[in-house]
Write a structure and sequence with these properties.
heterodimer; A: about 110 residues; mainly beta; 4-stranded antiparallel beta sheet; about 50% strand; globular; B: about 120 residues; 6-stranded mixed beta sheet
């Protein structure tokens, strides 16, 4: 089954404790992206990747890092999480540069205390 | 820059009555437009998309949307609501200015369906 998976689905952590949210897709898509969803703001793009070893900032990249060492994986790293990073995070993937349709993972709900 | 405005943050309908979720967009060129749905505790699912073909677009689960360039609108409709339609709906416009298809999301409309 074609899918985007994220782990963990739920995470509660404390300020400053480094964490990684994994994202994996099995559709051989070149494009992958991370979004955060906050009430009343819709989804905002954090980082995206057009291919292996190619990443770029989205609209809200501060406090986040990503890497793309393999085509299928695109982890999101919070090196020193802060409470304002409490949010619902979605990973997405799509095919090609003019990504017409993006496929979303189930989301990771992160709480930073 | 491309942007999208969803005119209602919450919409409440009775089961069996029509659904209308409103969306206006701003784009400097002919855009691609999408509607995504998010059911509770689930990821986003593509409902339908407009990519400059027919202006009336049919999607899954009986939803459809009409692209009206003169009104810069892309409203989502369904003739008869079902309880399972209760979810959050996002209107999305594509932005190709960065050399790839970046999605710009509206703030979302939460649809409640009452028996």
């Amino acid at each position: 089954e074609a899918q985007v998976t994220q782990n963990p689905r739920y995470l509660i952590t404390v300020t400053g404790k480094k964490l990684t949210v994994t994202c994996s897709q099995n559709m051989n898509h070149e494009y992958m992206s991370w979004y955060r969803q906050d009430p009343g703001l819709g989804l905002r793009q954090i980082y995206y990747s057009m291919n292996v070893e190619v990443t770029d900032k989205g609209d809200v990249p501060e406090g986040y890092k990503v890497s793309r060492k393999e085509k299928r994986n695109f982890p999101l790293i919070l090196e020193s999480p802060s409470p304002n990073q409490t949010s619902l995070y979605f990973c997405a993937s799509g095919e090609g540069r003019t990504v017409d349709t993006q496929y979303f993972g189930p989301g990771t709900r992160l709480t930073v205390l | 820059a491309q942007s999208v405005t969803q005119l209602d943050s919450h919409v409440s309908v009775s089961e069996g009555t029509p659904v209308l979720l409103r969306c206006n967009y701003s784009s400097s060129y002919s855009p691609s437009l999408f509607w995504y749905v998010q059911h509770p505790n689930k990821g986003l699912q593509l409902l339908l998309k407009y990519t400059s073909a027919a202006t009336l677009v049919k999607g899954i689960n009986g939803f459809e949307a009409e692209f009206k360039k003169s009104e810069t609108s892309f409203h989502l409709t369904k003739p008869s609501a079902h309880m399972s339609d209760a979810a959050e709906y996002f209107c999305v416009v594509s932005d190709l200015t960065g050399g790839y298809n970046k999605l710009i999301f509206g703030a979302g409309t939460r649809l409640a369906v009452h028996p």
